[in-house]
């Protein structure tokens, strides 16, 4: 009898567990919902269970399918800083507290997006001054998955206060702070990034199945084949580095060993599609305004590949959410003394501007040649915010620095024309730097530039008949060409050699 009672109790407990209505991972206390758009709310319940969602004056219902999944659509909501509960009712009741409505942005990429506020310039003052309870941030925990995950672990939604903001994505927070000051509605940041990761980790398996990406699969197959051996080697290299570091600290000397490169293989953040499956797929279809992206350093050795992968990522994420061409704003990699040659990767990033509703923040002038993680994230966030303010929120202003349009021979010079120069061209710390021209021999020589009525006249005594010009075409250029709005020109070249 005792065994029977225990068995019945276990069955009752299992039935109760199955009966519980649950919400997707992003639906937690203090959440920010997207305004002016249908708001999907989803989760799991018993198959066939009727689930009701109530928020403010709206009540909507859905029925769980055979797999237990359900999704209900709240109608478009007006922005409001006045919080309200969101209640989900099935066989049980789940209530989220302090839910507001405003603008939601997804922040993703590698370490420069992951870079926290507490490491930024003036971090102590920035943290102390943070008093923005309507700027909220949810961090997605690192996760690698072989197939699209159904759920993610998170930090929960946290308000921008001195207690919390130090751990926010710095780029995302400074973006949100500037936008909030202009539009005055709640801002939600969904932060899903992982340092040191290549773009192929953030692309779906379906997208990478395109034959155009055969080289990605071939490289991955090689990595998988040597993965066990690389794991052993990495463990030894890391142990040696740790020992050398400890010795350097004790003797006040420098650790000269290079940082060991982790093994690339299954279950690591370098797994192709692994981060898309584990950290992006579970976020959709959470209603949001757009994406902020800061990534590229890990793909610098393969710029030609990135030229195809980056627009493929933008298209695939837009397809995942199914909300058309939502804004996708990204940061062009900055100045850094890398062993790789970065200008072609910057060019590959810029080519993605051919896609609709995209924008690029140029950061050559605020990089750190000695640190791949420049600390001035305030200006990075501001430049991204300018794009959202002008393109999304219809606030007048300039959002881009000068962008190369054409180069026309004029005697011994080239006249260079730009877009985004209605406020004129400006050379900070004259004269203009990082200009080069080449003749038909395709050999580039340093050149001087003169601003002339919103154009640039470029010449070099070493090139009597120039046919090509380029600007800021090095890892750490002295880039000092701006428009009148104080935004830097993007690096460019007129040739395709």
TrEMBL record:
Keyword terms: Hydrolase, Signal
SUPFAM superfamilies assigned to the protein according to its UniProt record, in alphabetical order: SGNH hydrolase
Hydrolase in keyword set: yes
Keyword flag Signal: yes
Molecular-function annotations in GO: sialate O-acetylesterase activity
Signal peptide, first to last residue: 1-19
GO terms of biological process kind: carbohydrate metabolic process
Superkingdom of origin: Bacteria
InterPro entries: SASA (IPR005181), SGNH_hydro_sf (IPR036514), SIAE (IPR039329)
Gene3D superfamilies: SGNH hydrolase
Domain Sialate O-acetylesterase, first and last residues per copy: 103-205, 287-385
PANTHER family: SIALATE O-ACETYLESTERASE
The name this protein goes by in its record: Sialate O-acetylesterase
């Amino acid at each position: 009898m005792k065994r029977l009672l225990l068995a019945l109790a276990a069955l009752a407990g299992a039935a109760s567990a199955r009966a519980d209505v649950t919400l997707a991972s992003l639906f937690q206390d203090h959440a920010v919902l997207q305004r002016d758009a249908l708001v999907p709310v989803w989760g799991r319940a018993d198959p066939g269970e009727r689930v009701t969602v109530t928020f403010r004056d709206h009540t909507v219902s859905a029925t769980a399918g055979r797999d237990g999944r359900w999704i209900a659509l709240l109608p478009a909501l007006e922005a409001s800083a006045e919080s309200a509960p969101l209640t989900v009712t099935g066989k049980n009741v789940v209530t989220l507290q302090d839910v507001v409505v405003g603008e939601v942005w997804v922040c993703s990429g590698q370490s420069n997006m992951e870079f926290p506020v507490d490491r930024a310039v003036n971090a102590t003052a920035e943290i102390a001054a943070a008093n923005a309870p309507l700027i909220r941030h949810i961090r997605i925990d690192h996760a690698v998955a072989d197939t699209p995950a159904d759920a993610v672990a998170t930090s929960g939604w946290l308000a921008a206060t001195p207690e919390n903001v130090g751990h926010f994505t710095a780029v995302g927070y400074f973006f949100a702070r500037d936008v909030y000051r202009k539009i005055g509605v709640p801002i939600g940041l969904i932060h899903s990034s992982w340092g040191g990761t290549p773009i192929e980790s953030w692309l779906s398996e379906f997208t990478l199945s395109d034959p155009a990406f055969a080289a990605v699969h071939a490289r991955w197959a090689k990595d998988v084949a040597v993965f066990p051996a690389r794991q052993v080697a990495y463990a030894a290299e890391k142990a040696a580095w740790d020992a050398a570091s400890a010795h350097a600290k004790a003797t006040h000397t420098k650790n000269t060993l290079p940082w060991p490169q982790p093994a690339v293989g299954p279950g690591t953040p370098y797994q192709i599609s692994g981060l898309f499956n584990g950290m992006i797929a579970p976020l959709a279809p959470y209603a949001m305004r757009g994406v902020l992206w800061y990534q590229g350093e890990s793909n610098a050795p393969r710029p030609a590949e990135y030229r195809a992968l980056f627009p493929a990522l933008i298209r695939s994420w837009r397809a995942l959410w199914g909300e058309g061409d939502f804004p996708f704003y990204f940061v062009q990699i900055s100045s850094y003394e890398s062993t790789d040659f970065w200008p072609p990767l910057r060019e590959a990033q810029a080519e993605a501007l051919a896609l609709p509703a995209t924008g690029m923040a140029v950061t050559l002038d605020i990089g750190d040649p000695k640190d791949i993680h420049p600390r001035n994230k305030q200006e990075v966030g501001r430049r991204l915010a300018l794009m959202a303010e002008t393109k999304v929120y219809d606030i007048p202003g300039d959002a881009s620095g000068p962008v190369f349009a054409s180069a026309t021979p004029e005697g011994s010079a080239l006249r260079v024309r730009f877009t985004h120069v209605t406020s004129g061209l400006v050379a900070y710390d004259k004269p203009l730097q990082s200009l080069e021209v080449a003749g038909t021999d395709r050999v580039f020589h340093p050149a001087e530039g003169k601003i002339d009525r919103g154009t640039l006249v470029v010449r070099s005594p070493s090139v009597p008949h120039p046919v090509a010009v380029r600007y800021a075409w090095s890892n750490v250029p002295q880039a000092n060409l701006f428009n009148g709005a104080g935004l830097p020109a993007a690096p460019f070249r007129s040739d395709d050699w």
